[in-house]
């Protein structure tokens, strides 16, 4: 097996037969497809027929972090989930960050493949080599925040990292997400595929270490990247404080910020209502993915004069244009509330 970056194992779980298999990751697959989305597309192409029902038993969910996930490389805690999309009927691939990606690596796996369909709601508990399929009937119907809390309490493992679905995924809404912490695999309806399998959540805890094959060369490359990040006139001075909200003003200045289903794009301004100043007035800190010094995910608390006071969420640019400009909403507190609801319901 390739040394460094890879754990060398594929975990395959069949929810129909309850069979759990650990396979060796082929060295040639690692060389040809690297990891993450590459692994996902490779296994989907090889194992899932193009004519399967996306919400049927034969579809698969393929989770794969990258080779740098779990190392000290900055901005590398990413994971791809690949499936046949119920939204498009084609390849569905969605990405997420946070701590779930590295935890799967720490548990010893480069790929997690979920097959089949359980007759009853279940969740997966993966702790290094110990893998269990556990009942989740009492979790069915819970929102994503409560699901994560209850599972951690049930397992007596507060350091577990969890990816789960909410009511949207359970009800097979074709744009449903998979939520880990407050982050989302938000594209292509991957949450509906998870719901179609009666799989409520995946809880992971790992104690292993991702090795580096050439330590000195890795340290040099990491140092070079960190220096380049520090020298950027935008990354730390602006992006780490504003996150993707800064794109609202950039696209508005170009006249391309989406407005009212593109009917008034370039004509109506949203900068005063949802731009940088409004966001800074509601700033409550930031959240970092594992090993990332930037912390671009910005926490925003609905303002004191709002009827949504006390509502906290972490909107991204996609939130500002979809809940904001596209629907003609120029009120940041409303967008904070909608983001909170969307994450909670999955």
TrEMBL record:
<dbReference type="GO" id="GO:0016625">
    <property type="term" value="F:oxidoreductase activity, acting on the aldehyde or oxo group of donors, iron-sulfur protein as acceptor"/>
</dbReference>
<dbReference type="GO" id="GO:0046872">
    <property type="term" value="F:metal ion binding"/>
</dbReference>
<protein>
    <recommendedName>
        <fullName>Aldehyde ferredoxin oxidoreductase N-terminal domain-containing protein</fullName>
    </recommendedName>
</protein>
<dbReference type="InterPro" id="IPR036021">
    <property type="entry name" value="Tungsten_al_ferr_oxy-like_C"/>
</dbReference>
<dbReference type="InterPro" id="IPR013984">
    <property type="entry name" value="Ald_Fedxn_OxRdtase_dom2"/>
</dbReference>
<comment type="similarity">
    <text>Belongs to the AOR/FOR family.</text>
</comment>
<dbReference type="Pfam" id="PF02730">
    <property type="entry name" value="AFOR_N"/>
</dbReference>
<dbReference type="Pfam" id="PF01314">
    <property type="entry name" value="AFOR_C"/>
</dbReference>
<dbReference type="InterPro" id="IPR013983">
    <property type="entry name" value="Ald_Fedxn_OxRdtase_N"/>
</dbReference>
<dbReference type="GO" id="GO:0009055">
    <property type="term" value="F:electron transfer activity"/>
</dbReference>
<keyword id="KW-0479">Metal-binding</keyword>
<dbReference type="InterPro" id="IPR051919">
    <property type="entry name" value="W-dependent_AOR"/>
</dbReference>
<feature type="domain" description="Aldehyde ferredoxin oxidoreductase N-terminal">
    <location>
        <begin position="6"/>
        <end position="208"/>
    </location>
</feature>
<dbReference type="InterPro" id="IPR036503">
    <property type="entry name" value="Ald_Fedxn_OxRdtase_N_sf"/>
</dbReference>
<dbReference type="InterPro" id="IPR001203">
    <property type="entry name" value="OxRdtase_Ald_Fedxn_C"/>
</dbReference>
<keyword id="KW-0408">Iron</keyword>
<keyword id="KW-0411">Iron-sulfur</keyword>
<keyword id="KW-0004">4Fe-4S</keyword>
<dbReference type="GO" id="GO:0051539">
    <property type="term" value="F:4 iron, 4 sulfur cluster binding"/>
</dbReference>
